[in-house]
Amino acid sequence: xxxxxSIHPVPESWARTARVDAEGYEKLxxxxxxxxxxxxxxxxxxxxxxxxxxxxxxxxxxxxxxxxNWFADGKxxxxxxxxxxxxxxxxxxxxxxxxxxxxxxxxxxxxYRQLHAEVCRFANVLKAQGxxxxxxxxxYMPMIPEAAFALLACARIGAIHSVVFGGFSPxxxxxxxxxxxxxVVITADEGRRxxxxxxxxxxxxxxxxxxxxxxxxxVVKATGGDVPMQEGRDxxxxxxxxxxxxxxxxxxxxxxxxxFILYTSGSTGKPKGVLHSSxxxxxxxxxxxxxxxxxxxxxxxxxxxDIGWVTGHSYIVYGPLANGGTTLMYEGVPNWPDxxxxxxxxxxxxxxxLYTAPTALRALMREGGQYVTSTSxxxxxxxxxxxxxxxxxxxxxxxxxxxxxxxxIVDTWWQTETGGQMITPLPGATALKPGxxxxxxxxxxxxxxxxxxxxxxxxxEGNLVIARSWPGQMRTVWGDHERFFQTxxxxxxxxxxxxxxxxRDEDGYYWITGRVDDVINVSGHRMGTAxxxxxxxxxxxxxxxxxxxxxxxxxxxxxxxxxxxxxxxQADDALRAELIKWVxxxxxxxxxxxxxxxxxxxxxxxxxxxxxxxxxxxxxxxVSSLGDTSTLADPSVVEDLVSNRxxxx
Length: 649
Ligand code: ATP
Ligand code: MG
Hints:
Pfam families: ACAS_N (PF16177), AMP-binding (PF00501), AMP-binding_C (PF13193). Keywords: Acetylation, ATP-binding, Ligase, Magnesium, Metal-binding, Nucleotide-binding. Residues 25-82 form the Acetyl-coenzyme A synthetase N-terminal domain. The protein is α/β, with parallel strands linked by helices. Among the domains are: 77-276, Rossmann fold (3-Layer(aba) Sandwich), CATH 3.40.50; 523-644, ANL, C-terminal domain (GMP Synthetase, Chain A, domain 3), CATH 3.30.300. Helices cover 31% and strands 23% of the residues. The strands form 8 sheets. Strands 13-12-9-7-8-15-16-25 form an 8-stranded mixed beta sheet, with helices on both faces. A 7-stranded mixed beta sheet has the order 6-5-18-17-19-20-21, with helices on both faces. Strand 31 (556-565), helix 19 and strand 32 (595-598) form a beta-alpha-beta unit. The protein is globular, with a radius of gyration of 24 Å. The two termini are 25 Å apart. The structure holds adenosine-5'-triphosphate and magnesium ion (MG). The site of magnesium ion (MG) has 4 residues, from loops.
């Protein structure tokens, strides 16, 4: 399909006004690799340091002297960078706009000055409960402003936060509290998502039964729902906050002191407790946010992720606030009360920059264009995508229907481990190809290697590694430094292995083909899942597709496809045959699915990523050991898939 891709040149207006144009990108990128020491010390000036660093990167990916340090002699406070330093110039500008779940409710707005008071109060409540620098605090919250205050309050006093997505079960929560030995959990009485209540406090109570380390539970009153409070352990946030001042000094932190732990989404296995630093991470979040979104203070920016994912950390809270921006936080889901909500929120707040995930786009696309076209969206200037490869079909829908051909799309490839965006267009610099994350961000040195680790040059396909450290890189797996080294630095010696497969085309553009573990090998031809899935999604009746390999007597591996249809489309044998033929025509006979199962839903992580490892087990008929399913959004989907498994055709 690569040959037929359309190219969208940089719009003239963007080339003229954006911070970085095509020439600027080449220059910046070249400098970042030629002289990383000076380049990064210069970039570090964008932060407000208590002690300015004099050394940039000090790292080695080799086993003998394995280490990752950035700006190690610098001192700063992350919350001060996100709040205090903006007060003089922008104290009365809006830092956070909060859009409630129910559309008839009023949004809330917090200026930087108000944010300062809220965060200081929260920090003082934590201190009053004995929380000190280096302590771990688990945050299990709905998408309410207090969630952002809680993150920043931890940062202010140097506590390490560990956010657990509010959709996780008590068991998953208990595992994550125990893994990092949190003594304090911050939660709310209940959360709200799409008109439904989420019993957060009750879940914490259930989790607490399996946890030894937990001492205090701080409960924010969000819905006013009736929840039991345990004497001596639980306290209401609003009562504790009434007793403390709205001023709290900042804790000076070493650049390498940890800022947070965050567990990966678990699409490939047991989640890992990814640890991020204070200085390097904040620099990465802030620099990428500014350049990738060409962000300028005053612009209304909305990252429609949950704070429970790294996207929420870097691009709802830390990046935009470090840049003095206005960040929109949305409590609900994109398709409630109906599929036009996300666009109504855009109109209500005049959002200029929208950042969301392919899974959300495919779900909305499935409902039809009328939900989009009934809204204005005139304020939109730039669109972003993150989390999975975006199928060219979804890309075009985002571009043509949502953006009306006027807004560039930044398709950003990165991982919890990378702290921020790594391979991504810059809107004023990069011509776009639908489905490609395009080019590396300054400082990022990607390589494509074969199975033996040999570096492949030019247009090629293989495994994606990053050959040198960058400031936003994770520093360890919490409590298991050996697992960190083993997981990421032993597959290809001296390099960070991403786990993703990737193709590079003639123009040096990168195309993520899916997880390396998911690569299918049909009669000796290696195929990424993304390509076959994109071909299926191209069919007008297909909403979403997931493709996995299965054992095949003759070919070695056969292709098993799971397909979800658009609203009002009938699943039958005729359509099955048509779709199989469709893929054959789109990609070639080698990609012809051997089995195709219609699925009302696909197993996804709570963050919306398809869990192919489970689909692989089902395709193989091995349903007794599905592996870690604790991060599955809807376990009932699996039962349906198992009972409707189809045989090889
Ligand atoms: P786990 O590591 O526990 O299996 P996970 O990899 O799903 O979980 P994340 O860190 O949230 O956890 O996801 C990172 C992965 O998401 C990347 O490695 C890549 O496979 C995929 N990804 C993210 N953004 C993009 C993108 N723009 N294009 C293609 N793939 C993407
Ligand atoms: Mg991963």
